[in-house]
Amino acid sequence: MPTHDDTEPKLTREDVIKVAMLARLALSENEVTSLTQELTKIVGFVSQLSEIDTSDVEPLAHPLDSQNVFREDEPATSLKTADALRSAPRHDGECFLVPAVLGESSSA
Amino acid sequence: MTLTNRSAAELASALQKGETSAVECATAFLDRIEATNSTVNAFLTVDRDGALATAEAVDASRASGKPLGPLAGLPVAVKDVLCTTDQPTTCASKMLKGYQPPYDADVVQRLRAAGTVILGKTNMDEFAMGGSNENSAYGLVRNPWDLERAPGGSSGGSAAAVAADMAPLAIGSDTGGSIRQPAGLCGITGLKPTYGRVSRRGLVAFSSSLDQIGPMARSAKECAMLLQAIAGHDPGDSTSLNIPVPDYSADLEKPLQGLRIGRVAAHFSEGLDPEVAEHVETTFATYEAAGATIHDVELPHATYGVPTYYLIAPSEASSNLARYDGAHYGHRWDGTPSDEKGITDFDSPLVEMYCRSRAEGFGPEVKRRIMLGTYSLSSGYYDAYYAKALRVRRLIRQDFNKAFENVDVIGGPVSATPAFKLGEKTDDPVAMYLVDLYTVGTNLAGIGGISFPCGFTKGSLPVGFQLQGPALSEPLLLQATHQYQQATDWHLKRTAALSS
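The joint structure predicted for all components is written out below.
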């Protein structure tokens, strides 16, 4: 492995909590503590990429020289409502049911 | 010789000649699974009734003289990352416990059309994230060669199933080595096809620009049979290649005279187990004796493969796994307030349901990768991490393209060590990530790679050899492996650890 210096970013608890909210993960106190250490170590490891000069290199998002794929715009059958709802934790036969989007009233 | 000791090729021949029936064959493997799965834990679901019903239908078709394909009646194990309408699809995650998809994956449709008998769904690292199969919510898998060691991952259940004679054929998926590394550690053959060769529709997405489904079996000959059944264009996966599928068995018997094999000196640097190095070098010599020539090639950015992979794959995963929201399918928080301290400040009851469902449903490694990927994609870090990794990805692909101007394939180790002890790397994520050192480049470049057994350590653990080839070089990779397997018998060795 190439060596890298010790000036890598160190993640704080606040960073981890902020990222957890972006990722929609209600981490426990213990998870916040362990992920702060683990992510600092992993981010330090992946930061070795900064050694490489990529100023003239275009990003490669996809391994193939991809191109748009078109199809005819024709009607086709899609998933039946009952099949789509079959694995839903809560539904009313037509819609997925979720807790309140706004406000305090909760019915998870 | 019992049926479960026979190769898929032998079984196919016996089925065609009427020496055995699909029902007899399925029963033998189902009984073997019943006898050994409590030890190995390779299968998460075993579908005895479904398998026997399929087998009966195949036998009836054969009896009525209907033309059947070469795989008709052959049992196959399917990694639990592929959607099946008649069996749960859990990805070895609590998040998808009992989940029954509303459609079959393209590969599963093709397996059914080919008349294969799906025995069940195999264990794996949760959402295919891991290299040891220790990240399963339903228990780890044991390596059939040494029950105290890991089978590798993430397709550890599929590899162990074949190694333990629980299935003659298995389907795996490979995002950074998840077919090739467990194949190597379990002493079987596994192929990661070129990106786009096999449809990903119905493959639960981990990292969409890297994931690819492939065959696992004892030998290259059987991988060729299985790849034939699953490869091809699917309008339902816009990244699947719309080009003809060659006959993967056509070139197998051709000699290797003139094959140019690349050897990367850096593969043999620090960290490579001496016994692994010895067997890999012997394999190069075997190829030379068979008429191939060995050439030094360089992959200058290969050491950056793992850090590049561990930015791109988690970034794509954090986006792909956003779909598990507790609303549409999968695990949902039941509303019970948590006793544990932690994050408690949510914008709304809906957001609290999302966050608690996901926190309960995902295991530690999946959370770690979602966090890493979310961090790398987040505002202020995107350019330094995700975009940087995409640029290095281009350099890695260029390295392969350049090497393939001078050689036909590149050979080398699959893993730096033989199968490691269970628990050995679970406390150190970075050490676990480094097991992917030799395999991630294939996925980043979108090319093909195959892994096969090339010897055993003094401790009787299998050692794997990897060949990587340019895009769509599957016929050559299979031919080169088959020719090696004609000259050696490592792929025929059976473990004694589970003898019944």
